[in-house]
Amino acid sequence: MSFDLYGLKPRNGIPMPDQAADEDGKAYWVWFDNVKLDNTKGAYIKIPFFLWHQLWKFIIEKFDGILSKKEMNSIFYNSPQTIDHAKAMEIAQKLRELDNELSHYEKRLNNLQDEECDICGGTGKRCEPPEIGPGDIICNRCNGKGVARPVETIFPFRMDVVRNFAEFCEYSGGFLKL
User: Fold this and answer.
1) For residue 45, what pLDDT is reported?
2) 101 with 118, same domain?
3) Residues 54 and 6 both lie in one domain
4) Residue ranges making up the domain that contains 6
5) Nearest residue to 160 via CA among 95, 111, 113
6) What's the pLDDT at 17?
7) Which band of pLDDT confidence, cut at 50, 70 and 90, is reported for residue 22?
8) Residues 76 and 105 in one domain
9) Which of 43, 94, 102, 141 could disulfide-pair with 10, CB 3.0 to 4.6 Å?
10) How many domains does the chain have?
């Protein structure tokens, strides 16, 4: 599952047609079918579900006030939502300003030490699921090693996603989330 974002007026790209003027909807569907093929910055980006949630939790925490309460509540759901050009530009600018801080966060995650497995208690063998603790089954969390990467590194906050999203926002002219 992922979130598909479509630039409303990408620079040098295919702008989204005005749906009110497009009486039969043909122009919209032609645009919709072709925008994913458009390699123009800000035309289209796809972000996996778990990365989308991490990204927006971070944006909301760091940049209070960019989105309204209603927008914040619906940003996590796979329902249509439009973010206007001004908000998209503000998001891009603020993410770029935090690039150095984010790089340190990513490095910190990469340098975390493995920790005792919380499923098998560090033994490498777990009890029958859904129970946790030592048992006779090779642990699927640590693969029998007794140690595993910290939970916060399973779906890490990825700088490439942040940078790509910032660039998309900057060039999108606002965007439609589907």
Assistant:
1) 93
2) no
3) yes
4) 2-112+156-177
5) 95
6) 76
7) low
8) yes
9) 43
10) 2
